[in-house]
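Sequence only, no structure available. Ideas?
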Amino acid sequence: MAGVESASPRNTLKRTWSKAVHLQIVLALSVAILLQGSVSHAEEAAHGSDQQPKTDISKAIYQPGPAVIAPRVTKRFAEPGMTLNPVAIDIDGRGNVYVAEGWRMGKGAPSIVHSPMVRSNSLPLDLQRQTIEQRAEHVESLIKNGYFTREDFTGRADLLRLLKDTDGDGIADQSSIFAGGFNDKLDGVASGVLQLNGKVLFACIPNLWLLEDKDGDGDADKTTPGERTSLFYGFGLRWGYGGHDLHGLTKGPD
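Reply:
I predicted one. Tokens follow.
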């Protein structure tokens, strides 16, 4: 009869196959839901539920555990006046603090945008420079033509200061100059310091200095042989925008 599907073996097979597929889908979804619930419970057991009470930070310092959240305590290490114009610091294994102080910014180490540099049309020469010697020649030309005095380039000195806590109370009680006199017409700004195995690397263009107190008098001076050595020379070809020189000394992987 028209409109009535005959119960042929082919149609029976199709209905049986459809029911089997439907059953498999239902079973797969059921298993997935059960597994998801098991994983969620396992994660809560391993990592803690979001519904657990929050840790009381004020008491966490007294409670043992994988992580202790302690209140941050900040206090002044050096009193005002013990160091001025700090640019970079480093701390050795004994708690001594080395501070690179930059005194020559704008005086001895001018920026290309400073008025005398602009009036002297120094930018083209600054961009073309290829050697430190050419920079020295430029300085002499600026002095000769009255844009600067020699005192402008040598009147101030960058230095490396040493702060010490001698009584162990966590506050510096001694301030001294570990290395000073960096006032050559090409020096500065002193912008990097790194202590390393009892010695100190000090970045003050055009040199990277190795400083060491060999005679135990608390400094690395010019007069004691071997206390002040230039490891590399030639940094800071251009003045550019002042202070963008030799920074960020850090220990490498080797």
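The chain has six helices and eight strands.
Hope that gets you unstuck.
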